[in-house]
Amino acid sequence: MKFAAAISLLFVASASAFAPVPAGRVANSLMMAPGSGANQDPFAAYYNSSPAAPAATAAPAAPAGAGNPNPFGGKSLEYTGGTDPNNKNYSKLSEKLNEADIERRKIQEEAERRERAAEIRREERLAKIKYMQEMPENQPAGTVDEFMFKEGVQDQLDKLDRDLVGLLAVKKRVKEIAALLVLDKMRRKLGFETSVPSLHMSFTGAPGTGKTTVAVRMGQILAKMGYARRGHVVLATRDDLVGQYVGHTAPKTKEMIKKAMGGLLLVDEAYYLYNAANDRDYGQESIEILLNVMENNQDDLVVAVAGYKDRMDKFFSYIPGMMSRIGNHIDFPNYTADELVQIAGVMARELEYDIDAAGFDMFKKYIEERMKLPYFSNARTVRNAMDRARMNSAIRTFEKYAIQGVNGGECTVEDLKAITADDFQILLDDILNADVDKRIFA
Hints:
Layout: H1 2-17, H2 23-31, H3 44-49, H4 93-134, H5 144-150, H6 153-163, H7 168-190, E1 201-205, H8 211-224, E2 233-236, H9 238-241, H10 249-260, E3 264-268, H11 283-296, E4 302-307, H12 309-318, H13 320-325, E5 328-332, H14 337-350, E6 354-355, H15 357-370, H16 379-403, H17 413-417, E7 418-419, H18 421-432
Parallel strand pairs: 1-4, 1-5, 2-3, 3-4, 6-7
């Protein structure tokens, strides 16, 4: 009997030892301070007896009456930044919503602007149709001569005839373009449908054939007819458009385009913009910008490209988009010897010099020999020759009157204006008598 009772007590004790304890009691037992009696930390004796355990630093006591209503110790739900490098990719939800609202308003305003513009165009078209229906058949449109003289187009064409010797095909093409602009303006006056014609141009020919002069006259004609705000001409080469490093080309090209807006941009030797042998050449970027401007700003900028014909043809084969955007191709042929003599006479007249008949004959002999030599540049060669002839005339007059003392050192007006055959003879002798390697290519 006693043995059975002992066995029963043993079973009860074992069951009590392994029975689950409520969470509250466990938490209370673990949170009780040492020395409070029951339910002390069973490992406290081990910690206290360990020789390697460092001395604990006492935490500063909280001030009396201080309380923290937030059990997490701070405003844990508010974003306060941090050291994560991706923090800049995050923002408040309110900011994102505000940005989306602004973007939505911009899209709505742009749609309303386009709708208003379309409505204005519809009203203008209806008004034009009504005007055309009510316009009598005998409505006077004005004469072509009236528009030519009133707008100053004829004056520019006359200047072109005076400034350029020969080049009849070029002058004919310029007059055709001017005729298109005049008739287009007359149609616009009556209310007919009009559109800005493609005025981009290509000038091909050797140096000194008048490409820049024609470009200047075309710019002034476009300004007179209202197709250009200013009518000025900006001359550009590869150095003006293409940069030397990444990110440098676009600003340079856009700066030149900005200068030329309202006029004509003449790109001389345009084939140097493209280098087929170098895929990393920055000229391609400049060409793409020019193509975009030629397409989208043709009503405010005329682009003209110039250069040797064979090289320009090859350039157009590489850049077909440039070829398709140019509607006026003008070829400038080389001058003949007689035409170059006339150009010399025009230059002398503008500088108030007189060349006698013998001087013109000697100049023609010189220019015929000079045309056989390298680096011949048509009117530019004539200009260089005239500069040398003026210098020879000055030397001759100075030696005669200042050094030799002829007529007491007093020279006449005719002496100061005269360019004689002797002045051109010196140029011819430089070609005929000098060694091949020492010839002066004036």
